[in-house]
Design a protein that fits this description.
about 350 residues; two-stranded antiparallel ribbon; two-stranded parallel ribbon; 4 strands; transmembrane helix; Acyl-CoA desaturase; membrane; FA_desaturase_dom; Fatty_acid_desaturase
Amino acid sequence: MRAGWDGGAPATRLGGVSIDDDIAKPATGSDFARLSRRITEAGLMARRPGYYTARVAIVAGLYLGGIAAFFALGDSWAQLGLAAFFAVLFGQVALLSHDLAHRQVFRTRRPAEIAGMLAGNLGVGMSYGWWMDKHTRHHANPNHEDLDPDVDPDILVWSQKQAKASKGLPRFIGRWQAFLFFPLLTLEGLNLHFSGVRAVVKGNLRHRGLEAALLCTHFAAYLAVLFLVLPPEKALLFLIVHQGLWGVYMGSIFAPNHKGMPILTGDDRPDFLRKQVLTSRNVLGGPVVDVALGGLNYQIEHHLFPSMPSPHLRRAQPIVRDYCAEIGVPYCETGLIDSYAQALRSLHHAGAPIREG
């Protein structure tokens, strides 16, 4: 692990370096400009139409094949295995929607939006417009307590400051949130559905009508097929297994990226490169980890270059890591299991004021 940190330590420390020290430095936009030139000269911002054509074909083929297998199995307990298969597949569809939202696949907005809504809304029942708005705000201010929606204390508390001010459900859960984190992820799939529906109802989406129609089509088709093919008890169990495991998978993809990394507060405004690098963590691993996490295990490179095609992130990593070493910016990378351990230690540390109170 390079420039790692103890997830149980105060969230303003990273590898023995205070993020406040970096914030106090004058903005050095030229640091990122020099890195960007190296990345561009390496050809890593070039589109990969062949890769994405193959990826879409594989994911779509598995999706259609899974549906065919569901009908072929009929009233069978083996359907629970298929529920687990679809949990992973839904995660892969969501990751594809993520790449579409970042313009990694198409250069222009319209085809990206259409493909993103087909994958997100129709494919998995997750609002593309709602998620894109939320994720864009996250990328602009990662791990900022006031500006990043991913660290809002709606269920969990991410800092001791939030813990001290918590009330209701976050305070009740926050006491032992590190132990409850993975069990709570079983509800994340339902939360993604609910958040999308709520965004449609509130009417603040760019393509509200289309998103609503696609979401309704997904939910109607999903439930109709489920309860027409399976008896009620098996259909309900399939739904629980599928949605629960999908939530765990989605949470397991995103939890290692920023949880347990420094949290910015108030007027903390480091320059772009430091803001993205100091609040992000890479997860080491081979091709299996790359596929399972959709390339988001290279979170530092992804945050620095969001429109970089995901297969190029692995090649960008040594360039970014070496450059950070040159300019003295801590670069955090660790294994998958340790990344979860760091996130959980940080959650436990954040909830300390509630336990002590």
